[in-house]
Amino acid sequence: MRIDLNADVGESFGTFTIGEDEKLFLNITSANIACGFHAGDFNVMQTTVKRAKKHGIAVGAHPGYPDLQGFGRRELKMTPSEIYNSIVYQIGALKQFCKIHGVPLQHVKPHGALYNAAAENQTVAEAVAKAVHDAAPDSILFGLCNSELVEAGKKLGLKTASEAFADRRYTDEGKLTSRLMPNAVLKTYEEILDQVREIVFRQRVKTASGNWVSLKADTICFHGDGQNVAHHTALVREALEKEGVQVLQVGITDGSSI
């Protein structure tokens, strides 16, 4: 049994520091690096790619809506061509830093409101998948388990990875509960470990209403700006490995998904 652990990193910009990237790099296997639109900047991107290489962490692009003030968590009304162009632009920037440092761009994962929109809206999903297909065809597209985004990626022949979340509450439809709702984010180690264990060992997650939703995850996300995220990630990884789970970067098979 194996699982990839990923986290959103590189979200600092200018003189502002966000997250615990250095500590997270000790325990995650894949890094989703902000590309400057919702967070991060050209200096942070370069530094984060370099640090990921140092720790042997797989690098991924984490493009979002152009919404620095809202941290990319507010949905913007953008046309499919605007979404496509913005993602190509962001992937291109990070991909160049990867080239400079001699590391592959393992994956692409949309951020925040764009991620959620692509999970449910087929038009948005297709625009995102087409951008990845054209800008980084050898990369893996990360998307929410059972989402429109994963399906759109498969239709284009992309390698895909289905993602679940360690620290987010789910709806009965298998989507992420809005952050505007109370208790949308899991904050204690006990809650987070329980959810991760259900995902890994039983391929299911408990929803906000107490029901169960089936899912099969290739990778599990920890939010880089979460409270005590580095500490929780370390404890979860230790617990999984004690139970015989291999924590490894996403593996690729012969098919269109991993």
Note down, in words, how this protein is organized:
- This protein is of the alpha/beta class and 258 residues long.
- 38% of the residues lie in helices and 18% in strands.
- The protein is built from 8 helices and 10 strands.
- A 7-stranded parallel barrel has the order 1-2-3-4-5-6-9, surrounded by 6 helices. The protein has a two-stranded antiparallel sheet with strand order 7-8.
- The longest helix has 22 residues.
- The chain is globular, with a radius of gyration of 17 Å.
Average pLDDT over all residues: 93
Please count the helical segments. Answer: 8
Query: Widest sheet: strand order?
Result: 1-2-3-4-5-6-9
Global shape? globular
Count of beta strands: 10
Low-pLDDT stretches: 252-258
Main sheet characteristics: 7 strands, parallel, barrel
Give the helices and strands as they follow along the chain: EHEHEHEHHEHEHEEEHE
User: Span from first to last CA?
Assistant: 14 Å
- The Rg value, from CA coordinates, equals 17 Å
Give the fraction of residues assigned to helices.
Answer: 25-40%
β-strand percent reads 15-25%
Structural class determined from secondary elements: alpha/beta
Structural key phrases:
two-stranded antiparallel ribbon; globular; alpha/beta; seven-stranded parallel β-barrel; 258 residues; disordered C terminus
Layout: helices, strands, pairs:
Elements: E1 2-9, H1 21-24, E2 30-34, H2 42-55, E3 58-62, H3 80-101, E4 105-108, H4 112-120, H5 122-135, E5 140-144, H6 148-155, E6 159-165, H7 189-202, E7 204-206, E8 212-214, E9 219-222, H8 229-242, E10 246-247
Parallel strand pairs: 1-2, 1-9, 1-10, 2-3, 3-4, 4-5, 5-6, 6-9
Antiparallel strand pairs: 7-8
Helix pairs in contact: 2-3, 3-5, 4-5, 5-6, 7-8
